[in-house]
Amino acid sequence: MTQADESTTVVVVGGGVAGLALGTFLLRSGIGCVILEKHSRDYVENRQRAGALDAGGVRMLREWGVGEVVEGPSQDSSDAAMLLIIDGEKREWNMDDYEDAEGAFVPQQVLVRNLIRTFLRDGGDLRFEAEDIALDDLDTERPMVRYRDASGSAKVIGCDFVAGSDGYQGVSRTAVPDGFLACHTHEFGYAWLTVMTDVPADPLAVLAVHSRGFAAQITRGPNASRVYLQCPVTDTIEDWPDERIWRELGERFGAPVRTGPVTSKQVVPLRGVVFSPMGYGRLYLLGDAAHLISPMSAEGMSLALYDAEVLARAVVHQVEKADSSLLESYSDTCLAHVWERQASAVSMTDAMHDSGDASYRGEFRKQVAKANLENFHRPRTPQN
């Protein structure tokens, strides 16, 4: 029988936004936890991905007393008009009726870096370069988490709960027995060429609908931005030399764009994925380990924070009151929120993509999408 080297209440597998937020919430509630992250601190703090938080996410961090983590090289989206270009004509994104108007543009690496600093400052236990992580005895009252530390030594942690926040490709979900989780997937039928550049975005977010396809440029800090170009799922990065990227972005924006170094590029098929239930035994899944949402929605980090708070409050309720009701309802609570956001993401993604290039889904869907697109932008101001 495996013997634990140490014990804690929660082992968090994965040191991204979901895992760090959960660890921070638990730490501030006096609940013991250990966060295991397979990558180095430098890698995690410089990993470029999502870049926005909705108003609920910003408000949540402030309510937990860590509103400082959204400060730094970020931008309150209420102070930054989001430009929407439709067939070369500039419009303003209509945020009046959206809660996200009080959200923030926060590059993921900035949020992660700030969460790490806050967690460690407050005495949190965060272990980088934890390799060969394995989860055992998840269906018992005392799960075990095995791993090798940065020196190569084998370690075993006994715990009451395991939080799987190690992403879509992580080990947590694969520890669930085959056939237990249902996977629900929606394929949009097109991809994004995602391009990291050393070119600042000005304004911070520009979205374009064009007959050649959707395009966007979103800030990733004061000296970087990510470019998105709609393309067929069969495209490869070899189909997109740097010159073509900048030329195509200018075509879809309807004006020449500032060019510069391209640091990475990837073709990403757009899809939505939801796993149900969001847990097994004493393992609870959160963030990308449990669901993927269309990047058009910019909801990935916000969903991760929502999961983290629901799980944190459930664990605190169990520890302080010996009441497992919130843990038992964790999956249903989170999935209700996930499906609501998935519905919104599908609607927005369809409107922004189908209203441009009709070659993917036909003229009928294009005209429907154009009608729906009216909900997302303000009418043009009449010219004198």
Automatic annotation (TrEMBL):
Keywords assigned by UniProt, alphabetized: Monooxygenase, NAD, Oxidoreductase
UniProt-recorded Gene Ontology molecular function terms: 4-hydroxybenzoate 3-monooxygenase activity; FAD binding
InterPro entries assigned to the protein according to its UniProt record, in alphabetical order: FAD-bd, FAD/NAD-bd_sf, PheA/TfdB_FAD_monoxygenase
EC number(s) recorded for this UniProt protein: 1.14.13.2
Residue stretches making up the FAD-binding domain: 8-340
Entry protein name: 4-hydroxybenzoate 3-monooxygenase
